[in-house]
Write a structure and sequence with these properties.
The complex is a heterodimer. Chain A is about 65% helix and about 0% strand. By secondary structure, chain A is mainly α. Chain B is globular, with a radius of gyration of 24 Å. Classes of the chains: A mainly alpha, B mainly alpha. Chains A and B meet through α1, α5 and α17 of A and α1, α2, α3, α6 and α19 of B. Chain B: Its main location: endoplasmic reticulum. Chain B: Keywords: Endoplasmic reticulum, Glycosyltransferase, Membrane, Transferase, Transmembrane, Transmembrane helix. Chain B: This is Alpha-1,3-glucosyltransferase.
Amino acid sequence: MTDPKTPKNQITNPSNPIADLAWFFLIATSIKLLLIPTYRSTDFEVHRHWLALTHSLPLSLWYSDETSPWTLDYPPFFAYFERFLSLFPPLFDPTIVHLHNGLNYSSNSLIVFHRLTVIVFDTVLIYGVYRLTRKLGLRERVLIWVLVVWSPGLLIVDHMHFQYNGFLLGLLLLSLSWLEDGKDLMGGFVFAVLLCFKHLFAVAAPVYFVYLLRHYCRGGLVKGFGRLVMMGTVVVAVFVAAYGPFVYYGQIQQVFHRMFPFGRGLCHAYWAPNFWVFYILLDKGLAFMLAKLGFSIQAPTASFTGGLVGDSSPFAVLPRVTPLITFVLVMLALFPCLIKAWKNPQPKMITRWVAYAYTCGFLFGWHVHEKASLHFVIPLAIVAIQSMEDARHYFLLSIVSCYSLFPLLFQAQEYPIKVLLLLLHAILMWFGFSSQFSSISAVKARVPRQKKGDKSGWKGSSNIVTQNGGFIIGWIEKSYLLGLLVVEIWGQFLHPIVLGNRLPFVPLMMISIYCALGMMYSWIWQLRQIIRKR
Amino acid sequence: MNQTKLEIAEIALKEEDRDEDNIWWWLVHRGIVSSFICISVFALLVRAAVSLHPYSGAGKPPKYGDFEAQRHWMEITLNLPASDWYRNSTSNNLSYWGLDYPPLTAYQSYVHGLFLRTFHPDSVSLYDSRGHESYFGKLLMRWTVLSSDALMFFPAVLYFVVVYYSGSRSGRKSDVAWHIAMILLNPCLILIDHGHFQVYNCISLGLAVGAAAAILSNKDLLGSVLFCLALNHKQMSAYFAPAFFSHLLGKCLRHQNPLLDVTKLGLVVIGTFALVWWPYLQSVDAFLQVLSRLAPFERGIYEDYVANFWCTSSVLIKWKRLLTVPSLKLLSFGATISACLPSMIQQIRAPSNQGFLYGLLNSSLSFYLFSYQVHEKSILLPLIPVSLLAGDEPFLFKWMMHYALLSMFPLLCRDELILPYISLYVLFILLYHAPAGRQHTRDAQSLANLKSFVMAFLVICSLVLHIVYLALCPPEKYPFLFEALIMLLCFSQFVFLAGYANLKQWTLLKDSTSENKEKKYL
């Protein structure tokens, strides 16, 4: 047994970052294992069907098969990935990968296997986080790990709802880590690979393009052109590896047809909290007002709450939104960031720019899913500890983003889990940020004004830090977050009591609108930050 | 003297500094209560996740399992007057999960029954709800456990930690956080309460922890009230009774007026009991009726394969055939008392806070090993004092947890709780070996070679037993061979741990007396 009299002040071993990160990951893994029997969305069956599809059909038929409504609509690398995963089920339960018998199959072996694949491929995310944080100090590192490795959003979307976002975001973080290191070719390569896994990540492609063009392809005309060719070759090679086989089989048009289903409508059944929520609301409000004033307003034939929207316009007054309009809006929103990237391409800003691009895509994009908010919340975690303002913004954004995912888990069984996840995340962030900034202020107090002015990025925030000596959020943010609580209490408890079964869409709509406010704030904040920083 | 004080201050300063460079600084920098809040939210999350898994007797008519027992008690207490709760009648068939816990459990069932009736009346309606298994009914039942854990066990642990680490006890803040995590994330307790679904252990154990904390802070009357409540929630809390009794007696004897103090305590105890038993004190019959329900001696000296003395030795000596029930009762009573006597004597002679905690461990272990009608789940009781001691005895704690989990493995396998078993096991090992955590936890390496060899061997044995139990079919001649092997291994370890803990308690006495002498000498 241990000797109680061992000297307590022996020197601690310097902590080993890899072992520590593994510890954080394993803690998360044990929670993920516990979450295996939770609710699974249709995405679970979608991915199972893709396993069966890629396993039993030849490559030429992957994108034209219609055995199930859940046709393959991810780019080829993801199909190859599913083909790789489908090698394992025949070893223990061949029904899983049977094209017809496997439809809507849900045995324990499938559930455990499928969930384990997600857990195992989260290691990519861990590697990405490791690469991004390996040069930081102990405290910053640990905080980022807490934010990313224990992210409640990823737990909800990947390990309950079911998707492979951890894996894909891991690729994104890896790409960013190489860009931050100045290894642009590698970063570009990984990003191209990522695009061939999931094309939704293409929203950041303009930023990547401008950044790589200006940062990688510089140094004179000849050298720059050489590098451009080099990068082009790498990217093209990746795309050839992905799409080549389908071009060979003459399937390429079918592939693109499946990948871009524009028939799906502007919004999802549950409105993602973005700009279009306000547009729809404005339309409804105007229609109501005009009807009061005596104009005859034709009610739209398509409804927003009814899921997939067909070809008819869902708007009563305002002009119809087409995919082209959303595209133009996204590009317009991206424009300031592209100019910045063109003028002064710096590695330390790339994470912010890419996150901003995904924010624009989320706010103005076509048929956006609420899950897409993870695409910018996770990368922003990497920069959240850089200043007090960043931390404040991240605190708000990440709570809003996680809360906007609540409707994904609509069953009562998961209710305590999602609430506790969000609560734990908020507490961890609060403690983490406050320890971070109280210690910074303590250091600043000890060494007064030594660093003044040498880091312009710090300048704005250093005042606040020394004044408050801790992590403090303003009353607007506080009351906004309290409002979230009100929205939740109304939607979950008061609405059924007060209104019964009437207006069943109101709770979800309230969450959309309220979260959209936070998302708009985050977008404006990020935009301002990007414009201000040099 | 001054010099030593300076040294202590210096060490404390160093420890503060080390805290600042610690990986857990962000968690602990705001003090005990904030780190407790953070850890307890995490612990609640783990509990909520475990409660997604199956419970005992799910979908197994006609008697189902412990889950149905709890639900049935809610149904009975809600629909019948208190006088009929323990009585066989047309509407209360005692052979179908009759209430066999003291009145406080019945009251708690009543309150939870009210909660269930508000949201889902079908799940607690009289007669019709037998074997009720609906999605929502199950959820509500799970939530009653979650809430009682959060309302009883967690505050009790907070009280204990605040008391335990106040005053002279200095240490790194992250060590305190580690200790909190160890107490709150006790895998056995979580698996039994939130997985298997047994009698709300969190309530009685929470009351017991609260009582221990009250006694550590010298609030003896409060402590005895809380302990009486624990006893009245689950009679199993009697495992701790010798420790409470001897410690309080020892303390009273050292006061100026021992008789007065003992009378005060006695009155408080009797008062609490009278309050809880009030509905059954109207007639002798009613009282005896309840009492007979609480002591089910007809169930035999042991059940299944529990790692205690009677069950293990029955491999060689067939107790049940050799002796009658009354003589077995007497024998087991004698064995239990003699096993906890040394620790009681120590506490009466020299009551001390640390000794009290060891006393709790020793008395509960001796009950587990020698008393009549012990269940596998009863290992939870000795586990609680060990977890309270984890700050000083991390290795003892780990060892005990390891074998407690193993001893419950067959039970949890039957409930199909293997997945939470594995993940909680992993979680426990991870938290125990948290990065930059306690130095003590790393000391295991410095153990002597032979010792570490034996320990590694035992750990490997237990891991192999896990796998064997899952993977292999036992030979037809001995269908319970693996259970018996697990039981043997666990029993040997528990006996060893009991011996060690007794020894430790007595050496404490020596240490304190020698310290006292030194002080006098100085």
